[in-house]
Amino acid sequence: MKELEERIRRDGTVKTGDVLKVDAFLNHQCDVRLFDHMGQEWARHFAGKTITKILTIEASGIGIACCAARHFGDVPVVFAKKAQSINLDGDQYTTTVYSFTKRKEFPVIVSKKYLDADDHVLLIDDFLANGKALHGLIELCHAAGASVEGIGIAVEKGFQGGGDKLRAQGYDVDSLSIVESMNPETGEITFRD
Protein backbone atom coordinates (compact mmCIF):
# COMPACT_ATOMS: atom_id res chain seq x y z
CA MET A 1 0.00 0.00 0.00
CA LYS A 2 1.86 3.03 -1.32
CA GLU A 3 0.08 5.47 1.01
CA LEU A 4 1.34 3.59 4.07
CA GLU A 5 4.86 3.16 2.67
CA GLU A 6 5.09 6.90 1.93
CA ARG A 7 3.91 7.71 5.44
CA ILE A 8 6.50 5.35 6.94
CA ARG A 9 9.25 6.99 4.88
CA ARG A 10 8.08 10.48 5.83
CA ASP A 11 7.23 10.04 9.52
CA GLY A 12 8.89 6.78 10.57
CA THR A 13 12.19 6.62 12.43
CA VAL A 14 14.64 3.74 12.22
CA LYS A 15 16.33 2.95 15.52
CA THR A 16 19.07 0.51 16.39
CA GLY A 17 18.03 -3.06 17.18
CA ASP A 18 15.72 -3.40 14.14
CA VAL A 19 13.14 -1.02 15.62
CA LEU A 20 10.89 1.05 13.36
CA LYS A 21 9.19 3.85 15.27
CA VAL A 22 5.87 4.87 13.71
CA ASP A 23 4.17 6.31 16.75
CA ALA A 24 3.32 9.60 14.98
CA PHE A 25 0.54 7.88 13.00
CA LEU A 26 0.19 4.18 13.81
CA ASN A 27 0.65 3.11 17.40
CA HIS A 28 0.58 6.12 19.71
CA GLN A 29 -1.05 8.92 17.74
CA CYS A 30 -3.55 7.38 15.32
CA ASP A 31 -4.28 8.56 11.78
CA VAL A 32 -7.87 7.34 11.52
CA ARG A 33 -8.18 8.21 7.83
CA LEU A 34 -5.13 6.05 7.10
CA PHE A 35 -6.61 3.27 9.27
CA ASP A 36 -9.82 3.48 7.23
CA HIS A 37 -7.87 3.14 3.98
CA MET A 38 -6.04 0.15 5.46
CA GLY A 39 -9.39 -1.44 6.31
CA GLN A 40 -10.53 -0.91 2.70
CA GLU A 41 -7.42 -2.70 1.44
CA TRP A 42 -7.95 -5.69 3.73
CA ALA A 43 -11.63 -5.86 2.77
CA ARG A 44 -10.59 -5.97 -0.89
CA HIS A 45 -7.96 -8.67 -0.24
CA PHE A 46 -10.22 -10.86 1.91
CA ALA A 47 -13.38 -10.34 -0.18
CA GLY A 48 -15.30 -13.57 -0.52
CA LYS A 49 -14.13 -14.94 2.83
CA THR A 50 -16.58 -15.22 5.67
CA ILE A 51 -15.40 -13.02 8.55
CA THR A 52 -17.47 -13.06 11.75
CA LYS A 53 -14.89 -11.60 14.14
CA ILE A 54 -11.70 -9.57 14.04
CA LEU A 55 -9.15 -10.49 16.70
CA THR A 56 -6.16 -8.41 17.78
CA ILE A 57 -3.94 -7.88 20.83
CA GLU A 58 -4.11 -4.80 23.01
CA ALA A 59 -3.20 -2.06 22.61
CA SER A 60 -1.81 -0.93 19.25
CA GLY A 61 -3.96 -3.21 17.12
CA ILE A 62 -7.30 -2.08 18.57
CA GLY A 63 -7.74 1.18 16.64
CA ILE A 64 -6.69 -0.42 13.36
CA ALA A 65 -8.97 -3.41 13.91
CA CYS A 66 -11.96 -1.19 14.77
CA CYS A 67 -11.54 0.87 11.60
CA ALA A 68 -11.12 -2.30 9.54
CA ALA A 69 -14.26 -3.86 11.04
CA ARG A 70 -16.45 -1.24 9.38
CA HIS A 71 -15.41 -2.67 6.00
CA PHE A 72 -16.44 -6.21 6.99
CA GLY A 73 -20.06 -5.45 7.81
CA ASP A 74 -19.30 -4.05 11.24
CA VAL A 75 -18.22 -7.39 12.67
CA PRO A 76 -17.23 -7.37 16.34
CA VAL A 77 -13.62 -6.70 17.28
CA VAL A 78 -12.22 -8.82 20.11
CA PHE A 79 -8.89 -7.96 21.63
CA ALA A 80 -6.73 -10.29 23.64
CA LYS A 81 -5.82 -8.72 26.95
CA LYS A 82 -2.24 -8.78 28.16
CA ALA A 83 -3.03 -9.03 31.86
CA GLN A 84 -5.57 -10.62 34.11
CA SER A 85 -8.04 -8.18 35.66
CA ILE A 86 -11.16 -8.27 37.78
CA ASN A 87 -13.16 -7.45 34.64
CA LEU A 88 -12.14 -10.77 33.06
CA ASP A 89 -14.60 -13.25 34.47
CA GLY A 90 -15.67 -16.74 33.50
CA ASP A 91 -13.77 -19.23 31.37
CA GLN A 92 -10.88 -17.95 29.30
CA TYR A 93 -8.48 -18.96 26.57
CA THR A 94 -4.94 -18.11 27.61
CA THR A 95 -1.50 -18.41 26.10
CA THR A 96 1.84 -16.63 26.41
CA VAL A 97 3.64 -14.63 23.72
CA TYR A 98 6.99 -12.90 23.44
CA SER A 99 6.97 -9.23 22.43
CA PHE A 100 9.83 -8.13 20.16
CA THR A 101 9.52 -4.46 21.13
CA LYS A 102 8.96 -5.01 24.84
CA ARG A 103 11.53 -7.82 25.03
CA LYS A 104 9.44 -9.91 27.39
CA GLU A 105 6.77 -12.57 27.56
CA PHE A 106 3.24 -11.72 28.55
CA PRO A 107 -0.05 -13.60 28.77
CA VAL A 108 -2.78 -13.08 26.18
CA ILE A 109 -6.30 -13.75 27.32
CA VAL A 110 -9.70 -13.91 25.60
CA SER A 111 -12.97 -14.70 27.32
CA LYS A 112 -14.56 -17.88 25.98
CA LYS A 113 -17.86 -16.02 25.56
CA TYR A 114 -16.31 -13.91 22.76
CA LEU A 115 -14.61 -16.61 20.67
CA ASP A 116 -16.03 -20.00 19.70
CA ALA A 117 -16.11 -22.73 17.07
CA ASP A 118 -18.64 -20.86 14.91
CA ASP A 119 -16.26 -17.94 14.39
CA HIS A 120 -14.37 -17.18 11.19
CA VAL A 121 -11.61 -14.88 12.37
CA LEU A 122 -9.49 -12.23 10.70
CA LEU A 123 -6.40 -11.43 12.76
CA ILE A 124 -5.26 -7.79 12.58
CA ASP A 125 -2.13 -6.25 14.07
CA ASP A 126 0.09 -3.23 13.61
CA PHE A 127 3.43 -5.06 13.30
CA LEU A 128 4.70 -8.47 12.28
CA ALA A 129 8.33 -9.21 13.12
CA ASN A 130 9.02 -12.75 14.27
CA GLY A 131 5.36 -13.73 14.38
CA LYS A 132 5.16 -14.62 18.08
CA ALA A 133 2.09 -12.47 18.80
CA LEU A 134 0.24 -13.87 15.81
CA HIS A 135 1.08 -17.43 16.76
CA GLY A 136 -0.44 -16.65 20.16
CA LEU A 137 -3.65 -15.40 18.54
CA ILE A 138 -3.74 -18.45 16.27
CA GLU A 139 -3.32 -20.67 19.33
CA LEU A 140 -6.31 -18.95 21.00
CA CYS A 141 -8.40 -19.47 17.85
CA HIS A 142 -7.46 -23.14 17.69
CA ALA A 143 -8.33 -23.59 21.37
CA ALA A 144 -11.77 -22.13 20.62
CA GLY A 145 -12.20 -24.26 17.49
CA ALA A 146 -12.48 -21.04 15.44
CA SER A 147 -11.24 -20.81 11.84
CA VAL A 148 -8.46 -18.34 11.01
CA GLU A 149 -9.52 -16.91 7.65
CA GLY A 150 -6.62 -14.53 7.24
CA ILE A 151 -4.12 -12.16 8.79
CA GLY A 152 -3.97 -8.42 8.11
CA ILE A 153 -0.79 -6.58 9.06
CA ALA A 154 0.04 -2.89 8.73
CA VAL A 155 3.85 -3.20 8.80
CA GLU A 156 5.75 -6.45 8.31
CA LYS A 157 9.48 -6.52 8.88
CA GLY A 158 10.18 -9.01 6.10
CA PHE A 159 13.82 -9.45 7.08
CA GLN A 160 12.75 -11.00 10.41
CA GLY A 161 10.92 -13.88 8.72
CA GLY A 162 7.71 -14.11 10.75
CA GLY A 163 5.44 -13.44 7.77
CA ASP A 164 7.24 -15.93 5.55
CA LYS A 165 6.85 -18.64 8.21
CA LEU A 166 3.11 -17.95 8.54
CA ARG A 167 2.66 -18.05 4.76
CA ALA A 168 4.60 -21.34 4.61
CA GLN A 169 2.13 -22.72 7.19
CA GLY A 170 -0.71 -21.91 4.80
CA TYR A 171 -2.03 -18.67 6.30
CA ASP A 172 -3.23 -15.89 4.01
CA VAL A 173 -1.12 -12.97 5.27
CA ASP A 174 -1.85 -9.55 3.76
CA SER A 175 0.79 -7.09 4.91
CA LEU A 176 0.14 -3.61 3.60
CA SER A 177 3.83 -2.73 3.76
CA ILE A 178 6.75 -5.14 3.95
CA VAL A 179 10.03 -3.60 5.05
CA GLU A 180 12.99 -5.38 3.43
CA SER A 181 15.73 -3.41 5.18
CA MET A 182 16.27 -0.48 7.51
CA ASN A 183 19.42 1.50 8.22
CA PRO A 184 19.50 3.31 11.59
CA GLU A 185 22.50 5.40 10.52
CA THR A 186 20.97 6.82 7.33
CA GLY A 187 17.28 6.31 8.18
CA GLU A 188 16.82 4.56 4.83
CA ILE A 189 13.92 2.10 4.57
CA THR A 190 13.42 -0.22 1.59
CA PHE A 191 10.18 -2.06 0.88
CA ARG A 192 9.43 -5.35 -0.85
CA ASP A 193 7.66 -4.94 -4.18
Automatic annotation (TrEMBL):
Q: What is its main location?
A: cytoplasm
The answer to whether UniProt assigns keyword Cytoplasm to this entry is: yes
Pathway(s) served: Purine metabolism; XMP biosynthesis via salvage pathway; XMP from xanthine: step 1/1
EC annotation from Swiss-Prot or TrEMBL: 2.4.2.22
Which UniProt keywords are listed? Answer: Cytoplasm, Glycosyltransferase, Purine salvage, Transferase
The UniProt annotation places 5-phospho-alpha-D-ribose 1-diphosphate binding at A129, N130, G131, K132, A133
Q: How does it assemble?
A: Homodimer.
Q: Which PANTHER family match?
A: HYPOXANTHINE/GUANINE PHOSPHORIBOSYLTRANSFERASE (PTHR43864), XANTHINE PHOSPHORIBOSYLTRANSFERASE (PTHR43864:SF1)
This chain belongs to which protein, by name? Xanthine phosphoribosyltransferase
Q: Which gene encodes it?
A: xpt
